[in-house]
Write a structure and sequence with these properties.
The chain is of the alpha+beta class. It has helices at 4-24, 37-41, 250-260, 265-281, 291-307, 352-355, 359-364, 366-377, 407-411, 427-442, 445-451, and strands at residues 45-48, 65-67, 71-78, 81-88, 92-93, 102-103, 107-112, 120-126, 131-138, 141-149, 155-162, 168-175, 187-193, 196-203, 211-219, 226-229, 234-243, 333-334, 387-388, 415-416, 419-420. The chain folds into 2 domains: 39-281, Distorted Sandwich (Beta-galactosidase, Chain A, domain 5); 332-451, no CATH class. It has 11 helices and 21 strands. Strand 14 and strand 15 (211-219) form a beta hairpin.
C-alpha cells in the first residue's frame, strides 16, 4: 500500500524539478517566479460581523470553520455565549443500515461572559496562517480570542486577552451534546477536576463497528471552569481530542496530553502550525488579477486543508463540521457526485495529501460492492450504491435486519440487492475519475497498485 508521505515527497520533487527546468529555459523568468504564496494569500481573510444563524444544523453551517483534516471546530453562539462545536472525521455511528449510519457530534465548548452580551461581534480568519481572531467590544469591555486547530495535532488552542478596562468574569464548560443528537443508543460522560474537563461519547450497541471519541480541556492558572480575567491579562486554554481509531483509550490519552502542556508550549505550537500552513500554500499558488476569484479559490483550498487528511476518514457531504444529527443524506460519501466534486481541483493544485483520503472508503467498500454485482446481476464486477460510509459501511443498506427505505423507493425499483442505487449503474465508474487523475498527476507505482484492483 502506498505511503502517503513518500508519495507526496516524490511528487513534490518531480514538480519542483520541472518547475526549475521551466524557469531555467526562460530568457525572462518574469516577475511571477520571484513571488511567494504569501504575496497573494495574505491578502484574504474571511470576515464575520454577526453570529451565525444556521449553526447548529443538519446541513451546511454558516459558522467560521477550523480544522486539520481530522479534528474540526465550528464557531457558533454569540458574543456573550460562544459555542465551539467539536467533531471528528473518524467519529461515526457505523452500521450498514438505511439512515442509521452517519458522522456524529462529539461535543461543544461553551464560553459564557455575561458582560459581553450584545457586544459588537467580529471574527477574522486569516487563510494564510490558519488562525482565527475573535473580537468582542462593548463600552469599556473588549475581549480578543486568538484560536486555531493545530495543523499537526488534534489540539484546539486559545488565547483570551482582555483588552478592555475592567475584569471580565466568565466560565468555560466542555459539554456533551444535547438537542443536537439523534435518538440512537450511545454512552456519554463528562468529568470536571479543577482546571481540567473531559467528555466522551461512544457507540457500542446495535452497530457493526464500535466507535468512541473524547475531548479534554485545560484552562491555565485557574482552579475551576470559572475565570476572572483582569485588564491586560491573557487566559491560555488547550483542548485535545482523539478516538478509538487513534488510541486504545482515547479518554486517557487526551487527558494526559492536555495535562502535559505548559504555557510556554503555546509559542512552539503556533510556530509549527503556521509553518505547516506556509508549506501548504507554497505547494502551488495562482495570481489571477481578480480578487473575487482569488479569494474563492484560496477559501476552497483552506477548507480542504482543514477537512481532508485522515486517510480512512475523509470528510463527508458537510465536511468535518457536524453540528446536528442525523445530517441530511447521512452526511456520507455520495458517489453520484458529492464525494468526488471537492477533490477535482486538488490535483492541479498539488494538494496530494488532501486528495488521497478520497480513495480509501471506496476501496474499503469494494468487497461488498462485488457481492452486490454478483447477487443482482450475476456477474463479476463492482456495483456501488449511491451512498457509503468509511470502513466498508453501506449507509443505504435495507437488507435483512437493516432499516427500511421509503416505500416510494421500493415501488420504483430503486433498491438492488438491498442497496439503494436509484438505477444508477455508473457510480463505480464515476469513482474512477479522481483515482485516474491522481495516477496521471503522480505516476506513483505504489498508488497505482493500491487503486488498480478497483479500476
Amino acid at each position: 500500500m502506498a505511503n502517503p508521505g513518500e508519495m507526496t515527497n516524490r511528487t513534490l520533487s518531480l514538480l519542483v524539478t520541472l518547475f526549475c527546468i521551466s524557469c531555467g529555459c526562460s530568457a525572462d523568468r518574469g516577475w511571477f517566479y520571484y513571488r511567494k504564496a504569501a504575496d497573494v494569500v495574505q491578502n484574504y481573510k474571511l470576515v464575520f460581523k454577526e453570529p451565525p444563524k444556521k449553526t447548529p444544523g443538519n446541513v451546511s453551517v454558516d459558522a467560521p470553520l477550523m480544522g486539520n483534516g481530522s479534528f474540526g471546530v465550528a464557531i457558533g453562539g454569540d458574543s456573550g455565549h460562544l459555542l465551539f462545536y467539536l467533531a471528528r472525521n473518524d467519529f461515526w455511528r457505523l452500521i450498514s443500515s438505511y439512515n442509521e449510519s452517519f458522522p456524529c457530534v462529539l461535543g461543544k465548548l461553551e464560553v459564557k461572559i455575561p458582560a459581553l452580551k450584545g457586544a459588537d461581534y467580529l471574527i477574522e480568519q486569516d487563510l494564510y496562517t490558519g488562525t482565527s481572531l475573535l473580537t468582542f467590544t462593548k463600552d469599556d469591555h473588549c475581549l480578543e480570542i486568538k484560536t486555531y486547530v493545530h495543523a499537526n495535532e488534534d489540539l484546539l488552542l486559545m488565547e483570551l486577552e482582555n483588552r478592555g478596562s475592567y475584569t471580565l468574569v466568565g466560565e468555560m464548560n466542555l459539554l456533551t451534546p444535547g438537542d443536537e443528537i439523534a435518538g440512537f443508543p450511545c454512552t456519554m460522560s463528562r468529568e470536571v477536576d479543577g482546571d481540567l474537563q473531559w467528555i466522551s461519547r461512544q457507540f457500542d450497541r446495535e452497530v457493526d463497528i464500535p466507535t468512541k471519541a473524547a475531548c479534554a480541556l485545560r484552562m491555565f492558572d485557574v482552579s475551576s471552569p470559572r475565570f476572572y480575567l483582569g485588564a491586560g491579562k491573557t487566559l491560555y486554554v488547550a483542548g485535545g481530542s482523539s478516538s478509538n481509531f487513534k488510541t486504545d483509550d482515547c479518554t486517557d490519552s487526551v487527558v494526559k496530553r492536555v495535562k502535559d502542556i505548559k504555557k510556554h508550549d503555546f509559542i512552539d505550537f503556533l510556530d509549527a502550525h503556521e509553518e505547516w500552513w506556509a508549506r501548504y500554500w507554497n505547494k502551488s499558488f495562482v495570481m489571477l488579477g481578480d480578487p473575487v476569484l482569488e479569494k474563492a479559490y484560496y477559501r476552497a483550498l483552506y477548507t480542504m486543508g482543514s477537512a481532508s487528511r485522515d486517510l480512512h476518514f475523509p470528510p463527508g457531504i458537510f465536511g468535518t463540521w457536524i453540528t446536528g444529527e442525523r445530517p441530511e443524506w447521512n452526511g456520507d460519501y455520495h458517489l453520484n457526485y458529492n464525494h468526488q466534486a471537492p477533490y477535482y481541483g486538488l490535483f492541479s493544485a498539488n494538494r496530494i495529501e488532501q486528495a488521497l483520503p478520497y480513495n480509501y472508503p471506496i476501496i474499503a467498500m469494494s468487497d461488498r460492492a462485488r457481492r452486490y454485482a454478483k447477487e443482482y446481476f450475476g456477474i463479476d464486477g463492482i456495483y456501488m450504491p449511491v451512498g457509503i460510509g468509511p470502513r466498508g459501511i453501506d449507509t443505504t443498506y435495507s437488507g435483512p435486519g437493516a432499516g427500511r427505505p421509503r416505500q416510494f423507493y421500493l415501488d420504483h425499483g430503486f433498491v438492488d440487492a438491498g442497496a439503494l442505487c436509484f438505477h444508477q449503474r455508473s457510480n463505480a465508474l464515476h469513482c474512477i475519475n479522481n483515482m485516474a487523475m491522481l495516477c496521471y498527476y503522480t505516476y506513483d507505482r505504489e498508488y497505482i497498485e493500491l487503486v488498480y484492483p478497483f479500476i
